[in-house]
Amino acid sequence: MSDTPLYLDMASTTPVAPEAITAMLRYLGADGCYYNPSSAGHRSGQVAADAMSGCRTTIAGILGCEPQEIIFTSGATESNNLALRGIAHAHASHGRHLITSQIEHKAVLETCHALEQEGFEVTYLKPNAGGWIEPEAVKAALRPETLLVSLLHTNNETGVCQPIDEIAAVLAEAGVLFHVDAAQAAGKFPLNLNETPIDFLSLSAHKFHGPKGIGCLVIRNRRQLRLQPMLTGGGQEFGLRSGTLATHQIAGMTAALQLAAHSQSQDYVHVSALKKQFIKQLEQSSAIKINGDTERSSAYIVNFSINGISSDALINQLATTVALSSGSACSSGTIDPSYVLRAMGVEGDALYGAVRASFSRYHTMTDISQAVEHIIAAVRRMQELD
Ligand SMILES: *Cc1c(COP(=O)(O)O)cnc(C)c1O
Q: Is the same domain home to 241 and 276?
């Protein structure tokens, strides 16, 4: 695929790890375990059911939760919807207030907007200039009728990590439920639910080299917590998410997460070096501004603006050579600047010039330096055109 661009858009999606592809293939064909795990009445179904419990146990071991606390979903969008709608709809009689932030993924923001239409009240916390939510701001927004606080772990546009541990401590003390959208964090950062009091955790496999269309919602202490399901039917996933389990997808996600957990620290060191090289090489020829608190930023994402260069024009110039993003995949394609950066107070050229590059364990230093050379050349061409 030498004529496809150098892909620096891993925050949007990643290629499936070979190990995960191998795992998936075992669940598809007539010679494989293609059975329905709900058909436990016969030996074949039981084999599939056992395989799925194995996956649940593996994922639970990595995340520090119980196997029965994992609900398989179609991805982080569905997990976010299930946590927010599930709690809101089951507990509306106890309170109708939710807290989130202005820098969430649309899967949370649009769900909150929908809940507002149903009469719920939502507080959208503003981030500081560094792109993170202060624990004190969360504390100050709490009300006796607050049902849930929902915040992302790592912002998908800026890569800025939120002070999740501190906020979790505040909420545990206040006795308020905490949902964390960890789509950009799972497999990249150590997440141990036995150490951090998080009640709901959303994951998406395709962000950590698993297949698309699969993820999970972890629900801590699920037995003590009432949630209204969105999908009703055969009662799979403890009644919270009906539908035949996507066995090959689950096997792929499990293999990908296992691999990521195994190579997490090694990958992080590698990707940190890639990001450092990217910034250093770009800085040598262009005046760039990094958006978001660099001290709190994930090594997997860099959001930057090049002085005098608009992001849409740059991304267009690079269309065939380097795949970059001007924000989230869902909001690019429109010329609206990023609502995340806007909320952080980024304005003018920095706002309209913001570009995101995102990396993976499979990138090499050569990939990065070639990509930066393309970017530098594109910037020169654009400056000459001016
Ligand atoms: C990608 C992403 C999602 C959506 O995940 P899907 O599995 O694609 O639905 C949600 N939140 C964040 C932070 C993401 O990066």
A: no
pLDDT tens digit sequence for 10-49: 999 999 999 999 999 999 999 999 999 999 889 999 999 9
- Strands lying side by side in the sheet with 200-204: 70-73, 215-219, 200-204, 177-181, 146-152, 97-101, 121-125
Give me the CATH number covering residue 10.
3.90.1150.10
Q: Are residues 153 and 274 in the same domain?
A: no
Active-site positions read: 330
End residue of a domain, out of 229, 258, 287: 258
The total number of structural domains that make up the chain: 2
Residues 186 and 102 grouped into a single domain: yes
How much distance in Å is there from the Cα of 193 to the middle of ligand 1?
Answer: 20
CA of 78 to the centre of ligand 1 (A): 9
Query: Which residue has its alpha carbon closest to ligand 1 atom 3?
Result: 76
Cα of 83 vs centre of ligand 1, distance in Å, is 14
- Cα angle 32, 36, 39 (rounded to 5 degrees) comes to 130
Q: Quick one: 182 exposed, middle or buried, by C-beta within 10 A (0-12, 13-18, 19+)?
A: buried
The residues with which 152 forms a beta bridge, in sequence order, are 181
Same domain, 225 and 203: yes
Structure tokens at 335: 């010329």
**Which residue CA neighbors atom 2 of ligand 1 most closely?**
183
The pocket around ligand 1, CB under 6 angstroms, is made up of: 75-77, 105, 107, 152, 156, 181, 183-184, 204, 207, 215
User: Which ligand 1 atom is the nearest neighbour of the CA of 78?
Assistant: 9
In terms of domains, do 158 and 138 share one? Answer: yes
Question: How many of the other CB atoms lie within 10 Å of CB of 22?
Answer: 12
- For the stretch 289-310, what's the b/e string if a residue is b when 16 or more beta carbons lie within 10 angstroms of its beta carbon? ebbbbeebbbbbbbbbbbeebb
171 and 39 within one domain: yes
Token readout for 122 is 């939502």
The answer to whether 48 and 248 are in contact (CB under 8 A) is no
Domain encompassing residue 356: 6-14+263-385
Task: Quick: pLDDT tens for 299-337.
Answer: 999 999 999 999 999 999 999 999 999 864 445 555 689
If one residue of 78, 162, 207, 300 were mutated to test the ligand 1 pocket, choosing by the most ligand atoms within 8 A of its CB, it would be 207
